[in-house]
Amino acid sequence: MSGVIHWAEEVGDDWARVRAELTRAFEVSRASAQAEESLVYVVRQDDLLGRRGPGNAMVATGLLSAARTAALEGARKGWTANVVAFDEGAEREAVHAWAQRLLDSGDVTGELVHLGPGHVGKTLA
Amino acid sequence: MNGVVVVTGAARGIGRAIAEKLAGTGPITVVGVDIAPELALSEHITPIQVDLTSVEGPALVRETVKAAGAPLIGLVNNAGITRDARLVNMSDDHFAQVLEVNLGATYRLSAELAPLMSDGGSIVNIASRAYLGNFGQFNYSMSKGGVVGLTRALSLSLAPAIRVNAIAPGLISSEMSLAIPEEIRDKMVASIPLARMGTPEEIANTVWFLLTPLSSYITGEVIVVGGGRSLS
Description:
The complex is a heterodimer. By secondary structure, chain A is an alpha/beta fold. Chain A contains four helices and four strands, in the order βαβααβαβ. Chain A has helices at residues 15-34, 45-48, 54-75, 92-105; strands at residues 3-7, 38-44, 81-86, 112-115. The longest helix of chain A has 22 residues, at 54-75. Chain B starts with a strand and ends in a 7-residue tail after the last strand. A seven-stranded parallel sheet of chain B has the order 3-2-1-4-5-6-7, sandwiched between helices. The A-B interface holds A 15, 18-19, 22-23, 25-26, 29-30, 33-34, 47-54, 56-73, 110, 123 and B 86-88, 90, 95-96, 99-100, 103-104, 107-108, 130-139, 141-157, 220-221.
């Protein structure tokens, strides 16, 4: 199944860069929704927990919430939205493969898939 | 509790209830952001009107806090707006406005005021249950999700001196929720296990809990105040 895999970029702690990254994600997501194509955001597990500063945290958790809302809207049209969160040291190809698997499934939506054990024992995202 | 607490979006709804709750508790000076001087709610509330999305806005709040002459013990980032639409129809402007007010202003004001805050201080960010996803609110949901991440990051960087937590209100009786068409609102209420909308005072009570030593071992958390809606 076709779709978009959107990797969150590093933004540091400058608000202008956070805003630009979230705006880029919005534009990609809107285009994907208009084309009725599925969507996967890729973020770092550490950023969901706020461990690498506020900028990257705002982007990661913002994308997770956006995916959940997009999933609700896409369900009516048959497209999906999900998030893959990876631990430090994960191989990009492996992460991409999981994102592609979510695009291909067509059944899973609104989910956060953790790659690696970094989330275990931590807060619910 | 003795000192200054800043509350944004304090002119109405949840923010007003928070400001009134704090002002009624004794030796707290509330800096109520967004309150016009003629609408000052109490002698314990210092009204200030600034644009928190501007570069100057947070700095003006900082100067007002300094002028109050007491330690800054709390910040409640409550100001927020909605501009709802399905993602396919959402405009660039409505996306940008919601992101800037709900997330950008929260970040900038927190960064401006945290250095002033005394040990034992507490920041409370008003997120929304929409961070779990809500149809027609891609911008709002993303912004409030960002607030959750900001809360976590600040809770780590400001510990152990300052605690940072978030509240995620569900459907609360306020101007924002009353703007929802009645038929839709009734359906939403019907899906809430506690069978009613929450009140601004119930959010204010949770803010009070998070601002005071009652919650002295809690930081980096999100408390959902939604009548059980997250389960139904």
